[in-house]
């Protein structure tokens, strides 16, 4: 059996389920004021949009295109139609937004751990909103400019298979390299950021453990969220390493495209599960109805537990 078919049959169900879970988690964040006011969660909302856009752009405009029966679908609006734009610059918009959002979330965790005294004041609603808008505006402008200078089109790379690229060959080569270099640069920066964060957490551990209960709880929250974003970023780092071997060092890894596709499946689909696993604050709201049922059924619950629950530290 074709390896591409095997990979799709394995990871397509994962991507479908992850998308449903992702949309539900994002809806919970947007619906809840407590979560909506936290920069970390709103940055992850933008991250979620980029993740979902990236993975389904890959499936619809890249993986499906490897099968000849899909050719009429891509050509229904003509060689230079909207689908050709989505295949190149539309995909590039989501792909690069995803990488920059991972970077900005890294900076958010960096300030939370290294500069906790100014973190809340630095990450206001406006700063969070402007950060998201700047990233999206930059990538949208890049996609629009590329489309204007060199319109995207479909053409046959073999008698049966279509490919999509910009009309301007030089511009296409530059964009291809840019899309390959971006994960490498972002992965390098994230390694530096999270390396510093981990060192800081390890150094301060003994001091925090000897301090009051409130600081210890806040420290544990930061550790959990740091683990969450590090695991998410590790997949990007692996993708960046593969791109570095392929595009920078000129070493063509066997099945490199398939490896990167699998990395994108995991990168785009793992975040909602990581957030639910490591964020008590989010998990409390996602499983709110179940919590209510448990509380209502426990008639003799001690008020002490309710008071402790209200004292749980939050994230920003």
TrEMBL record:
<dbReference type="InterPro" id="IPR019426">
    <property type="entry name" value="7TM_GPCR_serpentine_rcpt_Srv"/>
</dbReference>
<feature type="transmembrane region" description="Helical">
    <location>
        <begin position="223"/>
        <end position="242"/>
    </location>
</feature>
<feature type="transmembrane region" description="Helical">
    <location>
        <begin position="6"/>
        <end position="29"/>
    </location>
</feature>
<feature type="transmembrane region" description="Helical">
    <location>
        <begin position="180"/>
        <end position="203"/>
    </location>
</feature>
<keyword id="KW-1133">Transmembrane helix</keyword>
<keyword id="KW-0812">Transmembrane</keyword>
<dbReference type="Pfam" id="PF10323">
    <property type="entry name" value="7TM_GPCR_Srv"/>
</dbReference>
<keyword id="KW-0472">Membrane</keyword>
<feature type="transmembrane region" description="Helical">
    <location>
        <begin position="73"/>
        <end position="95"/>
    </location>
</feature>
<feature type="transmembrane region" description="Helical">
    <location>
        <begin position="41"/>
        <end position="61"/>
    </location>
</feature>
<feature type="transmembrane region" description="Helical">
    <location>
        <begin position="127"/>
        <end position="149"/>
    </location>
</feature>
<protein>
    <recommendedName>
        <fullName>G-protein coupled receptors family 1 profile domain-containing protein</fullName>
    </recommendedName>
</protein>
């Amino acid at each position: 059996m074709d390896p591409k078919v095997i990979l799709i049959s394995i990871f397509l169900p994962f991507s479908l389920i992850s998308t449903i879970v992702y949309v539900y988690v994002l809806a919970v964040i947007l619906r809840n004021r407590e979560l909506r006011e936290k920069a970390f969660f709103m940055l992850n909302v933008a991250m979620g949009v980029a993740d979902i856009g990236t993975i389904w752009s890959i499936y619809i405009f890249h993986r499906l295109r490897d099968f000849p029966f899909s050719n009429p679908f891509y050509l229904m609006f003509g060689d230079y139609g909207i689908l050709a734009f989505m295949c190149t610059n539309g995909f590039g918009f989501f792909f690069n937004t995803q990488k920059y959002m991972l970077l900005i979330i890294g900076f958010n965790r960096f300030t939370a751990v290294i500069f906790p005294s100014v973190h809340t004041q630095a990450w206001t609603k406006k700063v969070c909103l402007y950060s998201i808008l700047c990233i999206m505006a930059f990538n949208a402008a890049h996609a629009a400019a590329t489309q204007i200078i060199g319109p995207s089109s479909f053409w046959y790379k073999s008698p049966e298979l279509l490919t999509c690229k910009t009309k301007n060959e030089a511009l296409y080569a530059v964009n291809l390299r840019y899309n390959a270099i971006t994960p490498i640069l972002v992965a390098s920066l994230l390694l530096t950021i999270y390396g510093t964060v981990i060192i800081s957490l390890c150094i301060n551990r003994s001091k925090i453990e000897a301090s009051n209960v409130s600081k210890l709880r806040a420290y544990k929250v930061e550790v959990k969220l740091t683990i969450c974003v590090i695991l998410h970023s590790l997949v990007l780092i692996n993708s960046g390493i593969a791109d570095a071997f392929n595009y920078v060092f000129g070493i063509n890894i066997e099945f490199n495209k398939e490896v990167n596709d699998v990395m994108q499946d995991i990168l785009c689909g793992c975040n909602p599960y990581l957030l639910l696993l490591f964020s008590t604050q989010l998990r409390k709201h996602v499983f709110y109805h179940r919590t209510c049922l448990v509380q209502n059924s426990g008639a003799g619950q001690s008020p002490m537990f309710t008071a402790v629950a209200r004292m749980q530290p939050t994230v920003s």
